[in-house]
Amino acid sequence: xxxxxxxxxxxxxxxxxxxxxxxxxxxxxxxxxxxxxxxxxxxxxxxxxxxxxxxxxxxxxxxxxxxxxxxxxxxxxxxxxxxxxxxxxxxxxxxxxxxxxxxxxxxxxxxxxxxxxxxxxxxxxxxxxxxxxxxxxxxxxxxxxxxxxxxxxxxxxxxxxxxxxxxxxxxxxxxxxxxxxxxxxxxxxxxxxxxxxxxxxxxxxxxxxxxxxxxxxxxxxxxxxxxxxxxxxxxxxxxxxxxxxxxxxxxxxxxxxxxxxxxxxxxxxxxxxxxxxxxxxxxxxxxxxxxxxxxxxx
Length: 298
Ligand SMILES: Cc1cc2nc3c(=O)[nH]c(=O)nc-3n(C[C@H](O)[C@H](O)[C@H](O)COP(=O)(O)OP(=O)(O)OC[C@H]3O[C@@H](n4cnc5c(N)ncnc54)[C@H](O)[C@@H]3O)c2cc1C
Hints:
Blueprint: E1 7-10, H1 14-24, E2 28-31, H2 37-42, E3 50-53, E4 63-66, E5 69-73, H3 78-82, H4 85-89, H5 91-99, H6 103-108, H7 111-117, H8 124-128, E6 133-139, E7 142-147, H9 148-151, E8 152-154, E9 157-158, E10 165-172, E11 178-186, E12 195-203, E13 209-217, E14 224-225, H10 227-233, H11 240-253, H12 264-286, E15 294-297
Parallel strand pairs: 1-3, 2-3, 11-15
Antiparallel strand pairs: 4-5, 5-10, 6-7, 6-10, 8-9, 11-12, 12-13, 13-14
Helix pairs in contact: 10-11, 11-12
Flavin-adenine dinucleotide (FAD) binds at residues 29-37, 39, 74, 100-101, 105, 108-110, 112-114, 116-117, 119, 122-124, 160, 165-166, 190, 192.
């Protein structure tokens, strides 16, 4: 199906994009990679009267390391992140970027668009919830940095106002003796996950678990930070018993719905398996091993 007619606006700068959004109001949508918005428009589930295209704003697709931070411009494509040195240094970023859909989607889809879309099955929010992450937002009123945990408030809903857009995503790089892994169970590459789990861990000098972040995807209205599971591991020896308690806590925090991808019970089982496996890969990577992560197909 073709989308309904719309007016096309090519923004030359972020300021112009924000001003256009303020002027055009609820009838306007930003266009980034178009990998969520255009399919919705073609299905006529979204029919914005105006599209404000960000793709011609210069200097918005960077991935760079800046002191202890990793900085991603809003238009950083999944493929840019996959190929970046940041993703080599923080393997769960590579797990995520390299596994989203297919090469066409990865070449167009952006990090800013993914977080702004706030799809409960989207991969980036799950991964970035395990690391200290700020979403830098800009509007005609100015700029603010919002912690990712507060940025997404509900399914497909964020704190962004109608005239506000994502400019940059800033992730605090993990210290030495850290490792992470992202595992997503998908029925095939071009579909969203049935369930997914991300784990980022830092080992203490005595090999106990220091800092740990665990997040769950596609098992709730938003990505879930599994804080109860983290508590079972932080400061603890990574014994089979402690890991089993963390897995149980993650399963309890999951709130899956039965749908075409499986029953709620099945997804709750899968999330436990994914957390356990992601934790194992994360710890091995923290110890310096090279281990495969990423997407599993079933
Ligand atoms: C076949 C297929 C399979 C896919 N599978 C997966 C998957 O498994 N996992 C996954 O994570 N994703 C998946 N995606 C989605 C893909 O990752 C998209 O790239 C992403 O969801 C949206 O990014 P985009 O840049 O394309 O945004 P767009 O589609 O351009 O925009 C999405 C929404 O965000 C808004 N927006 C865009 N940029 C900004 C900004 N800077 N500030 C504020 N608002 C903004 C838009 O107005 C729109 O409402 C899939 C897509 C397709 C087509």
